[in-house]
Structure formats: C-alpha cells, structure tokens
Fold:
Amino acid sequence: MNERIGGDAKMFEERTHFTIGEEATFTKIISDEDITTFAKISGDENPVHVNDAYAKGTMFGGRIAHGILVTGLISAVLGTVLPGPGAIYMSQQLRFLAPVRPGDEATARAKVTEWDTEKGRITLLTEVTNQDGVTVITGEARLVMSSFIKKK
Structure:
C-alpha cells in the first residue's frame, strides 16, 4: 500500500507552478489479482478479462486487462506526481491501441502541454506503454488545481 495514504498533511502540498514539457511516470506490473479484483469492484466480468478458455478463442488469444484498469495508472501519476496532490480531473480523452495482459509492466507517462497560471488549469499528454515500449493507450488530460477553485 502507498505509504502516503493517510500520511501527514505536509506530504500532500499542492504545487502552483508547472513547466511546459515537464514529465512524470508511474509504473506497475498488472497482475492477475489486479484484473480479478477490478472485475469484482467494477462489475465488469467480461470473459475476455476473467475466463482463460473464452479469451483464448478471441482475437487477443488470451486474457487481457480492462482498459479502464490500465487507465487508472494515468490517474495515479496525475494524482500523486504530476500535477500531484490537489489535482482535480476535468476531462480525459483516451485511445486504446493495444492490449495489456496479466504480468505486463505498464508505465503511465504524463507531459505538461499547457499551464494556465490564472485559472490553475493544466493540460497533459498522457500515454501508457508496456515493457516492450509499445504504446497501449494515448490521450490528453485536463485538470484544475484545487487551490485555484473558489470556495462557495
């Protein structure tokens, strides 16, 4: 478990400045347990994710991870590293290009493409690659830093 969860509030200081081109990554091996747990939590028990015999007969030739499970790695890099604590999703565009299989190492990357210093809005190029360097997901995320949101 991430040791930052429930940690000291100082660990969660919000950034208020970003540089165009700044990048960050988050890497995780997608386990069979991750896929099974996600299926249970989300209710998405599509057999291409959870049934070996069924998945072998598909175009993938075996089980694959849920696209949204893998997309969660993008959320991890955005929420914990860049832009980090205080970042609130406004939108995320995605294109799924290749499957991620149990045991694959997936790396989410975020790169700052726009930073609005007045409104605290940030746009980032997002992508996930596997251990072979194959891009499996691409997209763009727009977030706002919570300290820029006016309280009611």
Summary: Residues 14 and 85 are 5 Å apart (CA to CA).
